[in-house]
Amino acid sequence: MRLTTKILAAVAICASALAAFAQESVIRKNLMERLPNLPKIDEITKSSMPGLFEVRVGGTDVFYTDAEGNYLIQGNLIDTKAKRNLTEERIAKLTEIDFDALPIKDAFTIVRGNGKRKVAVFEDPNCGYCKRFERDLQNVNNVTVYMFLYPILGPSSTERSKNIWCAKDRAKAWTDWMVKDADAPAGTCDTAALTRNVEFGKKHKITGTPTLIFADGNRVPGAIGAAQVEKFLAEVK
Question: CB–CB of 75/82 below 8 Å?
């Protein structure tokens, strides 16, 4: 009797898997035929909303469709009961960056106090929000900041980033500019790290500055205040 129950359960699982595969195949076939310019489909899965399927393309881009791929929806799926943006949460998970995998060699460090807590920041020196953020960040102590120069706002950003990267004391040159508006002198050195930073950021969908990455992988876009930085640092286990 027990063996029969196990066999029936296994058959049910196989049948469910086959049905899911068939469903995915129908959606994939219809979307590819009808939307030839759609990027390669990476994955099709059931969403939290009955009858709605998530279509993941380009690694981290999310769309939604019906069971036959007759409609394609671009936008946020909101759980109104839980008051959660499910799409935002999903993309955050897909774009999560392992802190230990960050290319630290392409950053410089700013250490305050004992430096035990860690955060990585991607910033453009010409970003006004970054300047505001940096002035607030002066109030956060006992932290090591891994600063990734991320010049995405034009040629002037690239030039200023090169000068800071080539400075004898990068941390001082950065702080002087961001907090005191004192430009770093022109410098010459190997600035390939800046190109690698931009490539890394594009790969991981870092589209704005500042973007913060905490040691637990938590990624926070925008110029948050010192109190919020402290909150995220405290949450790192």
Answer: no
Q: Which residue in the block uniquely carries the two structure tokens 């913060």?
A: 212
CATH fit for domain 2-94, picks 3.30.300.230, 3.50.30.30, 1.10.10.10, 3.10.450.70? 3.10.450.70
Enumerate the domain spans of the chain: 2-94, 99-235
| CATH 3.40.50.620 corresponds to the domain 99-235 | no
Query: Which structure tokens are listed for 208?
Result: 């704005």
Give the pairing type, strands 117-123 and 143-149. parallel
From CA 176, how far away is CA 122, in angstroms rounded? Answer: 17
> Per-10-residue mean pLDDT for the chain, 237 residues long?
62 61 88 94 94 92 95 96 93 85 96 96 97 95 97 96 97 97 94 97 91 91 94 90
Q: 43 has which bridge partners?
A: 56
